[in-house]
Design brief:
The protein has about 675 residues and is an alpha+beta fold. Helices cover about 25% and strands about 35% of the residues. It folds into five domains: about 5-280, Rossmann fold (3-Layer(aba) Sandwich), CATH 3.40.50.300; about 285-395, Translation factors (Elongation Factor Tu (Ef-tu), domain 3); about 405-475, Alpha-Beta Plaits; about 485-590, Ribosomal Protein S5, domain 2 (2-Layer Sandwich); about 595-675, 2-Layer Sandwich (Alpha-Beta Plaits), CATH 3.30.70.240.
Length: about 675
C-alpha cells in the first residue's frame, strides 16, 4: 500500500447542506456505484439504515473506499443532526482531512459551527465546497465571507461561479484559468472545458490575483515570481496550496450543485491534490501504559501494530463490526491483538473493506488505512488495539453527557433479558447512549442526546432487534452538586465472623468550577497505610459520584479531599474503608448545601424574517433567553438558551407558528442551578 496515494477524508456539514448527496456523486464519478441514489427517494447508498431512508437524514457515519486518479480514498459520511454529534466526533478523530459542505444560501449554519470547532480540536485540514449554487439566493462569496468572519479562517477561492441561483451554469477554474460546464445528458460525467469568456475575463483575473495574493503570503517562491513579473505555473500553485492547507494556514474554496451533478469531479481532484496523506499529518499521540509517558506514533507499515476502534456497528450475522483506523504496523486475518485499555487478548477472525453496508474480505490492513475487524468481543468505541510489547493508549475520545431520559419496559417478563442484551449492544455502538436501572422503581432508564436520538434508538430496538417494549415520556436528566465547602469525619465498625472491621476517614468536599468534572485527591501521606486501602477509598468515592446526594442524579463538579484516616492494622479492611468513605461522602455533601442542576440547551432557530417575532416568543415563553439575532439575505438566525425541561414539543409549536417554514438545532450548553428544586418550575 502506497501511503502517499491514500486519503482518509470525511464529509461534514450542517443538516440538509447536502453531505450525503455530495458523497453519492463522489461514489458515482469514481465508479463505485453505477446509478446515483437520491435521498429524497430513500435510495442513497450511504444512508443504508431503514430509518435513514425513512427520515431522509444520516444517523450513522458510513465508511466506504473508492479510487480516483490511482489514489485510494476512504470516505466517511458523517451525520449533520446535532443529536448525533458523537458520530461526527469519533469520525473526525481518525480522519486526516475533511470536506466541509456549506449551503450557498444558508452559509455557516449552527451545526456547521459545531463540526468546524470539532475539526479544529482534532487539527483536521479541510477543503470547503459551497453546494446548492443553483438555489434562489445562492451567494458563493457571502458563504466565504461568513467562514472568514465566524472562524477567522484564511479562505482562498480556487473557483468562482458562472452565475448564481437560477443563472448558475458552471465554474471558472482560477488555477488553470478556464471555464468548466457539466453536461446534463450524461449526468455530469462529461465536462465541457472552454476559454474564459471576454465578459468574465476581468473578474476572473481579479479573483486569480486575490487567490495568488493569499497563497503568496504563505509562499516565498510565488512571491518572488509575482515580484519579478513572471507567470505563476499552475503546478506550483497546487503544490503551495497543498502545503498551506495541510499546515491549516489556508482553506481552499470550491463550488457546485451536487443535486444537478455540477462541480463534483474538481472536488475529488481537490481531495487528492490538497488534503494530506496519512504520513503527512502530525504523528498520533499516545500514552505508554508501562513507561507512563506521552509517546508519538509515526505512521509506518513496519512499526508496532496499533489501531483505534472508532466505531462499532452490530450485524445480525457477523456480530460486532469494529471499525479500526490503523496508525502503525500491520494486522493480518487470524492475528491475536491486545486490547490495551482492557488488558485482554482477542483474535481478529476476519478483516473487511467496507462499502457502506456491503463488504469485501482483506488479508491484512496496515498503517494509514481503515478497515473492519470481526471477532473482537470486548472492544468498545475508543479502545486501542495493538501488541503487549508496546501497550500504547491512543487518546480517549470525549463524548458529551446525555441530557434526556425515558423509561422503557418489556411487554413481557421473558423479553426483559432480550431488552437488556439489546441495550448493551446499542451502548457499545453509541457512547452517548446509556442505560441504568432505577434503584427505587426498578425501571430501566435509557438516556441520550435529544428527542430524535432516543426516538431513533427506540425504533431500532423495536424494528431491528424485535424487542417488544413500552416507552415512557421523555424526562430531563438532572445533575447534583454542592455550593459550599464542608468536612466530615466518619467512623465505621462492624463485627463479621467474629472479626472486627473498623475504619475512620475524614473527607472535605468543595464546589469546583462548572464543567471541570469531579476530582478526588488524597492529602494523607501516612507511611504504613497500604496502597490498597487508599485505592479502596478512592474507588468508593468515585462510585458515589454516580449515585447522587438528595435525588439520586449523578454528581458533577465536586472536589473531594481525603484529609485524614484512622488506620489500625488489626481491625482494618478494604471493605470497612469503602463503607466509611461512601457514608462520609454522603454526609459531607449534605453539609455542603447541595443543589440540583438542570441542563440548559443552546437553541439556534432559522426562520424567515416575517416570523422572527413568533419564533422568539416561543423561546421566551419557555423560560429561554435570546442571546443574539443574526441576519442573512434570506433568513434570520435566532441564538438563544433555554432549560431542557421546557423544550419538549418545541418543534411542533415552532412549526405551527411559522407555517412550517422555521427549523431549529438544539445542543447541550451547560448545567445551571435549578430554582425551586425538583418540585419547582
Amino acid at each position: 500500500m502506497d501511503l502517499s496515494k491514500t486519503r482518509n477524508i470525511g464529509i461534514m456539514a450542517h443538516i440538509d447542506a447536502g453531505k450525503t448527496t455530495t458523497t453519492e456523486r463522489i461514489l458515482f464519478y469514481t465508479g463505485k456505484i453505477h446509478r446515483i441514489g437520491e435521498i429524497d427517494d430513500g435510495e442513497a447508498t450511504m444512508d443504508w439504515m431503514a430509518q435513514e431512508q425513512e427520515r431522509g437524514i444520516t444517523i450513522q457515519s458510513a465508511a466506504t473506499t473508492t479510487w480516483w486518479r490511482d489514489h485510494q480514498i476512504n470516505v466517511i459520511d458523517t451525520p449533520g443532526h446535532v443529536d448525533f454529534t458523537a458520530e461526527v466526533e469519533r469520525s473526525l478523530r481518525v480522519l486526516d482531512g475533511a470536506v466541509a459542505v456549506l449551503c450557498a444560501v444558508g452559509g455557516v449554519q449552527p451545526q456547521t459551527e459545531t463540526v468546524w470547532r470539532q475539526a479544529d480540536q482534532y487539527r483536521v485540514p479541510r477543503v470547503c465546497f459551497v453546494n446548492k449554487m443553483d438555489r434562489v439566493g445562492a451567494d458563493f462569496f457571502g458563504a466565504m465571507t461568513d467562514v472568514k468572519e465566524k472562524f477567522g479562517a484564511a479562505c482562498v477561492p480556487l473557483q468562482i461561479p458562472i452565475g448564481q441561483g437560477a443563472d448558475f451554469e458552471g465554474v471558472i477554474d482560477l488555477v488553470e484559468m478556464r471555464e468548466l460546464r457539466w453536461d446534463a445528458e450524461t449526468e455530469g460525467e462529461k465536462i465541457e472545458v472552454s476559454p474564459i469568456a471576454e465578459s468574465r475575463l476581468e473578474e476572473a483575473r481579479r479573483w486569480r490575483e486575490a487567490m495568488l495574493d493569499a497563497v503568496s503570503s504563505k509562499s516565498d517562491e510565488i512571491t518572488e515570481l509575482i515580484l519579478g513579473g513572471s507567470e505563476v505555473p499552475s503546478d506550483l500553485v497546487r503544490c503551495e496550496v497543498r502545503r498551506a492547507t495541510i499546515a491549516r494556514e489556508l482553506v481552499p474554496f470550491l463550488c457546485g450543485a451536487s443535486r444537478r451533478n455540477q462541480g463534483i469531479q474538481p472536488l475529488i481532484d481537490a481531495v487528492v491534490d490538497y488534503l494530506p496523506a496519512p504520513h503527512e499529518v502530525p504523528p498520533a499521540q499516545g500514552f505508554h501504559a508501562k513507561k507512563e509517558e506521552e509517546v508519538s506514533v509515526p505512521c509506518k507499515a513496519d512499526g508496532v501494530p496499533l489501531g483505534l476502534v472508532f466505531k462499532i456497528q452490530y450485524d445480525r450475522e457477523a456480530g460486532a463490526l469494529c471499525y479500526v483506523r490503523m496508525y502503525s504496523g500491520k494486522i493480518k486475518t487470524g492475528d491475536q491483538v491486545y486490547n490495551v485499555g482492557k488488558k485482554k487478548r482477542e483474535r481478529v477472525n476476519r478483516i473487511l473493506r467496507m462499502h457502506s453496508n456491503k463488504s469485501e474480505p482483506m488479508d491484512s490492513v496496515e498503517a494509514g488505512d481503515i478497515a473492519v475487524f470481526i471477532g473482537l468481543k470486548l472492544a468498545q468505541t475508543g479502545d486501542t488495539v495493538g501488541s503487549e510489547g508496546m501497550p500504547i493508549l491512543l487518546e480517549k475520545m470525549h463524548f458529551p453527557e446525555p441530557v434526556i431520559s425515558v423509561a422503557i419496559e418489556p411487554k413481557t417478563l421473558s423479553e426483559r433479558d432480550k431488552l437488556k442484551e439489546t441495550l448493551e449492544v446499542l451502548a457499545r455502538e453509541d457512547p452517548t447512549f446509556t442505560s441504568r436501572e432505577d434503584a427505587e422503581t426498578g425501571q430501566l432508564i435509557i438516556s441520550g442526546m435529544g428527542e430524535l436520538h432516543l426516538d431513533v434508538l427506540v425504533t431500532r430496538m423495536i424494528d431491528d432487534f424485535k424487542v417488544e417494549a413500552r416507552v415512557g415520556n421523555p424526562q430531563v436528566t438532572y445533575r447534583e452538586s454542592v455550593t459550599a465547602t464542608a468536612e466530615h469525619a466518619e467512623r465505621f465498625s462492624k463485627t463479621i465472623g467474629g472479626k472486627e472491621n473498623a475504619a475512620g476517614v475524614t473527607l472535605r468536599v468543595e464546589q469546583l468550577p462548572r464543567g471541570s468534572g469531579n476530582q478526588f485527591r488524597s492529602a494523607v501521606r501516612k507511611s504504613g497505610v497500604p496502597e490498597e486501602i487508599l485505592d479502596a477509598i478512592e474507588r468508593s468515592v468515585t462510585s458515589s459520584f454516580g449515585s447522587g446526594i438528595q435525588y439520586g442524579y449523578p454528581c458533577v463538579d465536586i472536589g473531594v479531599t481525603l484529609v485524614d484516616l484512622a488506620y489500625d492494622e488489626l481491625t482494618a479492611s478494604t471493605f470497612a474503608f469503602e463503607a466509611a468513605a461512601s457514608m462520609g461522602f454522603d454526609e459531607a455533601c449534605r453539609k455542603a448545601s447541595p443543589e440540583l442542576l438542570e441542563p440548559i440547551m443552546q437553541v439556534d432557530i432559522l426562520c424567515p424574517k416575517d416570523f422572527v417575532g413568533e419564533a422568539m416568543s416561543q423561546v421566551t415563553q419557555r423560560g429561554g433567553l435570546i442571546s443574539s439575532l443574526e441576519s442573512k439575505p434570506s433568513i434570520e438566525v435566532v441564538h438563544a438558551q433555554a432549560p431542557m425541561a421546557k423544550m419538549f414539543g418545541f418543534s411542533t409549536a415552532l412549526r405551527s407558528v411559522t407555517q412550517g417554514r422555521a427549523s431549529f438545532a438544539m445542543s447541550f450548553s451547560h448545567f445551571e442551578v435549578k430554582k425551586g428544586g425538583l418540585g419547582g418550575n
